[in-house]
């Protein structure tokens, strides 16, 4: 009889697999999309200007997201001195930790074999690979939502375990100040309450413990206060009008307002079922035709574990379906719960398939190994295929063409700010119009402007412009005050933000001192 590995050794092996899959190509990767450019830039600007409570983007307050992820990237940058590695370390840390939690919870709820199946399913799912390898907030949010699920599940399904419940509540609080939806694990309480009310086995009833339950809520609010309380005190004591506007933006408009009436990424109710789950939950989605009837049978047997975890997955997906704004990464927090309720059925399903197709038993291990090997190889191929960020090339050329003079940005992108090698001037991310740039150049004739070619003729003579190059969004040109065609007469430029990196080769090395 084959002797199985101890849970600790097996868990360490799965964590190592997560490290290899998600860490493949680390050091070759470079910020390539607007989210990565934005979050890396905000983190580096924090290091440079010391404004930790209120994030900034090119000297303007950035009010879209709380700062926890940017704090973490800044910390890893300070520790490693390599921003392009620091950006991806939160996702790598999440991969290793969440894999361990999924394994351990599956082992405790069912068996060690089920825990292993759950961890492998989690790592094999395409959405895990596509999100944890990015430098985006969701690659770190999954750590706190999964810890919330782990802590609450240890208490609700295996408890009483009040310490784990409190740990889960604190994790939800940190999740909220990472991204507003960090409270999602609390939805576990809905199917749990139903199971307790109906007397289902597999859940732990804990009547008469109101104070202990309320303490969990207090710990969640206390974790949120780690950032929110200093922010509130700072604004009350010496906050500017812009900082007060930031508080309203981040606490109201970017949370409840964005959920109820999104202004970006508007999609229909069924978006996740048609555009996301069929692709991003591969390969698990392929066996849903067998899993759904099996789950129904388990629910008919009143299995509280399945009711709580599967009910939670359904509630999370439904929560995001109701919102008008949707992105493919929104439902990722539900994946650990999904693999946990799928894992107990995998041995039954494989046994059924192997019985019908004996040859499949021999080739299945090779298929699994090949699947993971391809993800590992892709980790090295993708960065080489992407190459250098084109905005880094363009901004280096712009600094050479203008000899490091002030550069006014028009309809700019995060990459222009992140890779700037000279002082940049803008009038707000959403308000840097070509008319304001023309007026600014009249008042500052030694400055230049970076303008997309499709609107160049509105204020400047095309023959006097110097072509810079093309990125995914537009062709760009450099113009000076001598290119002004006199057609634009804005009343005033408005507030101008001027920003420069202390080290002009950002983000290749971290900032060292505050911007004077």
UniProtKB/TrEMBL annotation:
The keyword Transmembrane applies. Residues 64-206 form the Glycosyltransferase RgtA/B/C/D-like domain. It comes from the Bacteria. The chain crosses the membrane at residues 85-106, 140-158, 164-192, 213-237, 269-292, 304-325, 331-350, 362-381. Its EC number is 2.4.-.-. It is an enzyme of class 2 (transferase). Its main location: membrane. The keyword tRNA processing does not apply. It is a multi-pass membrane protein. GO terms for molecular function: glycosyltransferase activity. Keywords: Cell membrane, Glycosyltransferase, Membrane, Transferase, Transmembrane, Transmembrane helix. It is found in: Cell membrane. PANTHER family: MANNOSYLTRANSFERASE YKCB-RELATED, UNDECAPRENYL PHOSPHATE-ALPHA-4-AMINO-4-DEOXY-L-ARABINOSE ARABINOSYL TRANSFERASE. This is ArnT family glycosyltransferase. It comes from Pseudomonas azerbaijanorientalis. The lineage of its organism: Bacteria, Pseudomonadati, Pseudomonadota, Gammaproteobacteria, Pseudomonadales.
